[in-house]
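Reviewer 2 asked us to include a model.

Predict the structure of this chain.
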Amino acid sequence: MEKTNTFETLYNINLNDKTKEKIGLKYLSWAYAWAELKKIYPDAERIIYKRTIKTSETKTTKLSDGSEIVVVNEYENEIPYFTDGRTCTVKVGVKINGVEYIEELPVMDNKNHAIRLEAVTSTDVNKAIQRCFVKACALHGLGLYIYAGEDLPEVDKVTIDYSSLKKDIDVSAINEETFKQLQQDTVGMLQTMNELDSTSRDEIFAFSGEVIPNKRVSLLTYPEDSVGLIKLHTFLKRLYGLAKK
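Predicted model (structure tokens):
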């Protein structure tokens, strides 16, 4: 039964507090992936695939009579990447309970573009191996929902009624000091919108355009924009409260 349930067990782990974002994409650090994996399956293994290459070193020694002694030493080295002559890929497997899933990944730069073979460094290869390892873990279920473009595992998703979040907002008068605090809080929440799913972001844009049309929150003024700011701030607080449950 343990082998059968491995995927479900790993897939249902919520890793949202451990993910980071880069160039608009979420990713999970290899260290967190390894820690979560080993906590549940201490016998899990990571396998880095390598290829063997032969290299030679020629040493020439000149003798006093003018002759030379040439010695050629040949070596076999294992390197952790594969190449088609133009770019490189790495190959990493993760084995849990005797079942191995293998993932391959190009060696890429910080913009996710493949690096030309002649420019690849050992650092680039090492980074690719760690990223490939995390994707291999995802094949077992750990963090797979991140690659599917979701924000929460299925068991943690919350159905949000956006229309209800816009209702019954108290728009009582506020003073200038309170206005500035609400303005600062609202700007802060808008700056972290990438933490929300695309539907929530669309709802925010739509509601913002409705209550404070053609204005940036940072440029709102007291008291003429008070009602719009209160409505947007309340909507965001309610939305973030649900999204972070």
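The mean pLDDT is 87. Strands lie at 19-22, 25-28, 45-48, 51-62, 68-79, 82-83, 88-96, 99-106. We have added this to the supplementary material.
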